[in-house]
Amino acid sequence: MSVKKGLVLLTLSLLGVCTLSGCTKDEVLDHYNNIVQSVGSSELTGNLSLQGKKEKGIDDYTGSYQADYKGFSDTEYLFGGTSIKREAGKEISITCNLEVDEGTAKVFWSSGAEEPVTLIETTGKYKDTFTLPDGGNYIGIECENFTGNVEISVK
Asked: Which percentage of the chain shows pLDDT scores above 90?
């Protein structure tokens, strides 16, 4: 069964249970947000698959990541999720230091169905604060035969 079908079935079940037990609209929305958030977390690269070390922040949207790469070719989804109502608000700040010795690497922000936005792809520093739109939002790094290192902090 696909994740989307599972989410639909789980949501319908939740609505049925809440309707029978008398949940308020806010309680239904909170339960639904928790389900959507759990599904969004599954998109992140698992700690055992990461090339570096990740420290989780207050939620899946925040934390720090440091990695030294040697000839790495893949994409790592480091921070983000699909919360409808993020408790910490929609504003995040990102700081990134990237050093490219060989190959290519780009740190990106992916939001919903929009094309990912490249934040940095050459040796240097990046710092910005932005507001997350509704829907899925992820920060990651895409590498092609990349040797170098990256440090990312999201608050």
From this structure: 57
CATH fold label, 47-154: Jelly Rolls (2.60.120)
Task: Give CA–CA dist 48/11, Å, rounded.
Answer: 30
Closest CA to 51 of 117, 122, 143: 143
Whether pTM > 0.85 for this model: the answer is: no
3-state class of 3 per DSSP? helix
Task: Count Cβ atoms within 10 A of the Cβ of residue 18 and give its class: 0-12 exposed, 13-18 middle, 19 or more buried.
Answer: middle
pLDDT score of 102: 98
Is residue 99 within 8 Å of 148, Cβ to Cβ?
A: yes
How far is it, in rounded angstroms, from Cα 59 to Cα 150? 21
* Both structure tokens of 32: 């639904």
Q: Which range has the worst mean pLDDT, 39-48, 90-99, 100-109, 133-142? A: 39-48
